[in-house]
Amino acid sequence: MNARHTLDRLFPVVESLSVEEKVELVQHLLSNQPNLSIVIGNNPQQYIINQLGLLSSRELGEVLKAIALRIPAEGK
């Protein structure tokens, strides 16, 4: 059985899943792809959250420090 035939049989099954089941399936499929990020829809906040997840602890700390410095400056 070739991959195209397998996908053609799989798509109707996946389309019948609930949103939560689809999310679980995608998360499972991507679990072995740590540097891959997929953003669905037009949600810039989710994109930022996904990008933060790719940062090392040190890089994330630097971003958080920069945010902490910016907040009081904007409050003036």
Describe the protein in words.
By secondary structure, the chain is mostly helical. The N and C termini lie far apart (65 Å). It is elongated and about 60 Å long. The protein has helices at residues 3-15, 19-30, 44-53, 57-74. It is 70% helix and 0% strand. The protein has 4 helices and no strands.
Concise summary:
The protein is mainly alpha-helical and 76 residues long.
Which terms would index this structure?
4 helices; single chain; 70% helix; 76 residues; mainly alpha
List the helices and strands and how they pair.
Layout: H1 3-15, H2 19-30, H3 44-53, H4 57-74
The rough form would be described as elongated
Estimate percent helicity. Answer: 55-70%
Write the H/E string, N to C.
Answer: HHHH
How many DSSP-defined strands?
Answer: 0
Instruction: Work out the helix count.
Output: 4
Task: Supply Rg.
Answer: 19 Å
Main pleated-sheet profile: none
Query: Strand portion, in percent?
Result: under 5%
Head-to-tail CA distance between termini: 65 Å
Q: Are there runs of 5+ residues with pLDDT below 50, and where?
A: none
Derived from helix and strand composition plus strand pairing, the structural class reads: mainly alpha
Mean of the pLDDT scores? 84
